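Quick one - inputs below.
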Amino acid sequence: MAQLIDGKQISAAIKDELKTEVASYKEQGISICLAVIQVGNDPASSVYVGNKKKACAYIGIESKAYELPEETTEAELLSLIDSLNQDDSINGILVQLPLPKHMDEYKITQAISPKKDVDGFHEQNVGALQVGSQGFVSCTPAGVIQLLKRSGIDICGKECVVVGRSNIVGKPMAALLLRENGTVTICHSRTRNLAEVCRRADILVAAIGKPKFFDASYVKEGAVVIDVGIHRLPPAVEGGKSKLCGDVDFDSVAPHCSAITPVPGGVGPMTIAMLMDNCVATVRK
Ligand code: NDP
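Output:
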C-alpha cells in the first residue's frame, strides 16, 4: 500500500518550528504583523481568512483584519494597500481572493510591495523564483516541496510532471521542482496524450481543478502522486454530509503508487503553514 503523505502532521510540525522561531525574535524585541484584507463576505473566503488569523495567533504573529464592504472601490482598496505598504509596523499584506468583479485582481496584487507580498504573487517575486534569487514563493507549491522533502522523497533527477499551468500553482510548482533538480514537464488543457505523458512521471502533481480526473491510467506503477485539487462534492443523499475530494481518484490511484497525498489532509493544510513561513521570513536574517 502507498505511503500516505500526512499534510496535517507536516504542517503542524512546521507551525511548531515557526512558533519557536517567532518566540526567539520576540525576545530580541522583534514582532511580526500580517495585514489581512477581505472585501465582501464570501463565506469560503471568511473561512480561509479565519484559518489564517488562527494560524497567526498560534505562531505568535499579530494579525490585523481589514474587513471591507463589497461596494469598496478599487481606488479605496489601492489606497489602503498604499498606506499598509508605507507602515513599518506591517510586515506582510494579504488580500484574500477572489475579489468582487468590479476589481482588477492583477492590479491589486501588483500594488502590494514585493517586500510585503507574503502570497508570492508580485511579478518581482515570480521573477526571483525563475532566476533563483531570494523572494517570496507562492504558498501552495512551496508546501508541496516541503511535503516531499519531509516525507523523505528525493526530487533530484526524477521525472516530474505538473498538470496545470496557473500562476499560483502550476508554474511556480514547476519552477520549484526544477530548482530541486527534477526533470520537469508542464502539461495543460492543450497537452496531447496527457495520460501517456503523466505515466512518465516519478512525481506527478495534479492541479487542474477537475474532481477525481486522474485515475490509475495516468499513473506509473510506484510513482509519487501529489493532489493539489480541492473540491466539495454534494452529499450522496439529501441532508447528508458533503465530502471533499481532489483532482485524483484516490481509490483508483493509491494501490499503484509508492506515496500519495490524501484530500483532505494533504496539500491543503500546507498552504497556510507556508504563508506563516513567508511572514516569518520578513524578519529572518
Ligand atoms: P486554474 O483553474 O487557475 O488552472 C487550472 C489549470 O489546469 C490550467 O492551466 C488548465 O490548462 C489546466 N487544465 C484544466 N483542465 C485540464 C485538463 N482536462 N487537462 C489538462 N490540464 C487541464 O486552477 P488553480 O491552479 O488555481 O488550481 C488548481 C486546483 O488546485 C483547483 O482544484 C484548486 O481548488 C486547487 N487549489 C488548492 C489549493 C490548496 O491549498 N490545496 C490552493 C490553490 C488551488 P489551461 O492553462 O490550458 O487552461
